[in-house]
Amino acid sequence: MDSSRADEGDGGGKDVRSGRDETTEERADRRWTELLQELRVAQTGVQILFGFLLAVVFQPRFATLSDTDRGIYVVTVLLGSATAAALIGPVSYHRLLTGRHLKPETVVWASRLTLFGLVLLFCTMCSALLLIMRVALHNALALWLVGGMALWSFVCWFVFPAWALARSSSSSDRENQ
Q1: Who's near 57: CB < 8 A, 6+ residues apart?
Q2: Comparing C-alpha atoms, which of 35, 13, 163, 19 is closest to residue 108?
Q3: Got the DSSP string for 87-101?
Q4: What is the dihedral of CA 158, 164, 170, 173, to 10 degrees?
Q5: What does the pLDDT look like over 125-174, one tens digit per residue?
Q6: Do the Cβ atoms of 69 and 135 come closer than 8 Å?
Q7: How far apart are CA 114 and CA 34, in angstroms?
Q8: 102 phi and psi angles, rounded to 5 deg
Q9: Does the structure show a pLDDT above 50 at 52?
Q10: Which secondary-structure segment (H or E) carries 118?
Q11: What is the pTM of this model?
């Protein structure tokens, strides 16, 4: 085995758990490519949602919104802007650090920024849905529908992956005993 390969885990070379035999740089390249694919999906959704939000203020009906709905709109636009920044940030991070032999660190920080962007996207979607449901329904049902969708999104985006990770960790622990 090549001396540039490490013993295990994300700290370097060979990952005993997955059977991969890759250098730290190869792993960083693979993880960066995977992250870019994930970002493409998230960025497309954010761009569509943010474009919709920017157009709303120019619609004639916007003037008839209550102060509460205007407040929700402003919060939603700010969340959408923060989401776009967080999900575009990893690309800028990579571009500015390319060629400086910092790819493993870049992937770690870009992954963290992407996760933060997904949390912001969750908040943006909930806020946008609240605004739309309030305007469409004019009653308390809007809050219940948004709450239900927020819970479902939270479960799909965060609970299921955490559950899979916990199951994987407990399986690994049993195998190592």
Answers
A1: 73
A2: 35
A3: HHHHHHHHHHHTTSS
A4: -110
A5: 999 999 999 999 989 999 999 999 999 999 999 999 999 999 988 776 66
A6: yes
A7: 12
A8: -125, 20
A9: yes
A10: helix 103-137
A11: 0.80
Do 122 and 44 contact (CB within 8 A), yes or no?
no
Q: Please enumerate in sequence order all residues whose Cβ is within 8 A of that of 38, keeping only pairs 6 or more positions apart, or say none.
A: 114
Written as six digits, the tokens of 140 are 């308390």
Q: Give which of 41, 32, 46 is closest to 94, Cα–Cα.
A: 32
Helix residue ranges, H only, the chain: 24-56, 67-97, 103-137, 141-154, 160-176
Q: Provide the token pair at 71.
A: 């407040």
Residue 106: strand, helix, or coil:
helix
Q: What is the pLDDT of residue 14?
A: 47
